[in-house]
Design brief:
Length: 352
């Protein structure tokens, strides 16, 4: 049995399964350690005993109202920010893998089609004309969804019939034009914004987690998109490698591409509406995971999500501690890390 083709396939599948469990388990441990590290460091450091006692306060606070010490208050604030940063990074990385598979372009990222531009127009409009904080998130999400629907209408034929090497640039060009229009509106609003609102608008555009709040909706969106993409991972593998032959193998390419498009747009909209336009996470993390783990989307999709969340938690920790008590926008840190990391990956690709 071991020497038969069926036995070889079963052994290979078992080895792949053990490898996947090992890789995802290791990434999960790193994710937990990054969150613990984010909770411990800051302008006021917390020791191990302080963390343990503060964690008890936070857990008791979920059941009943209890007085909190300074350590408990710091842990609650840092833990909320770290979890919000993790889900934002995971959504960006997962959206990046989806966009690269959808467009069959390894340089694609969650912002390539201008969805973030629509979110920026909505968010800055709310900051400029309204004073309620919750309006910023709602307007950003609405702007991103509006641009996504516009792009879907313009590229419906391409998505229905499948994106080939000939019409993929047309979809990219459409996204670039829409993003340019949104950029013009953003520039207009920044030029007429009063000084007391300009700083917050610029910080939002760069990407900032200082005012982010932990919500359940991003986790629900991330879980749904991850379940959909992992279930379709085998079909995504075939579509990416053999797009022309995928339909002949029983794969509904049009439905798959529409699902990837809407999932990526929804992930991007949710992230940008809460944390702003944080760059490079959806570009370098999928590249790094693909370089280290291979192109199999059954492993690449969940691994990129976990790695993206871990990366953004560490970047945000660096952003709020490097010049403490002053805090930097996390988008600056991701760009400073992302540019050399991407150039290094590109150098390795060229050598190979």
């Amino acid at each position: 049995m071991k020497n038969s083709p069926v036995g070889s396939v079963q052994m290979r599948a078992s080895a792949d399964g053990r490898r996947a469990v090992g890789v995802l388990g290791g990434l999960g441990v790193l994710a937990v350690l990054s969150i613990v590290f984010a909770c411990a460091v800051g302008s006021v450091a917390l020791s191990g005993s302080d963390l343990f006692g503060a964690l008890g306060e936070v857990l008791r606070g979920l059941v009943k109202v209890v007085p909190k010490t300074m350590a408990g208050t710091l842990l609650e604030l840092r833990l909320e920010r770290a979890l919000a940063g993790f889900v934002a990074g995971a959504m960006l990385a997962l959206a990046g893998v989806m966009m690269q598979a959808l467009l069959r372009n390894p340089l694609a990222d969650p912002y390539v089609l201008g969805v973030s531009g629509g979110a920026s127009v909505g968010a800055l409009s709310a900051m400029l004309f309204f004073s309620a904080t919750w309006m910023v998130d709602v307007a950003a999400f609405a702007g991103a969804i509006a641009v996504a629907l516009l792009l879907f209408g313009l590229a419906y034929r391409d998505l229905r019939g499948g994106i080939s090497d000939g019409n993929a640039p047309l979809l990219l060009l459409t996204g670039v034009i829409v993003a340019s229009g949104c950029g013009a509106l953003v520039t207009l609003m920044l030029s007429i914004a009063p000084d007391n609102r300009l700083r917050s608008m610029v910080f939002w555009l760069i990407g900032d987690l200082s005012g982010v709040q932990l919500r359940w909706l991003p986790w629900i969106i991330l879980s749904g998109a991850l379940v959909f993409s992992v279930r379709k991972a085998r079909h995504i593998n075939v579509m990416v490698l053999h797009a022309e032959a995928a339909s002949t193998l029983g794969i509904h390419v049009g439905s798959l591409r529409k699902g990837l498009f809407f999932c990526a747009a929804l992930l991007t909209a949710s992230t940008v509406s809460s944390a702003g336009s944080i760059g490079f996470v959806g570009l370098i993390v999928p590249h790094a995971c693909r370089f280290a783990l291979g192109p199999d989307h059954r492993l690449l999709l969940p691994a990129a999500a976990i790695a993206g969340g871990t990366f953004l938690v560490l970047a945000d920790t660096l952003a709020r501690t490097i010049l403490a008590p002053q805090q930097l926008p996390v988008g600056v840190i991701t760009a400073l890390i992302g540019v050399p990391a991407f150039l290094l990956q590109l150098h390795h690709i060229r050598r190979r």
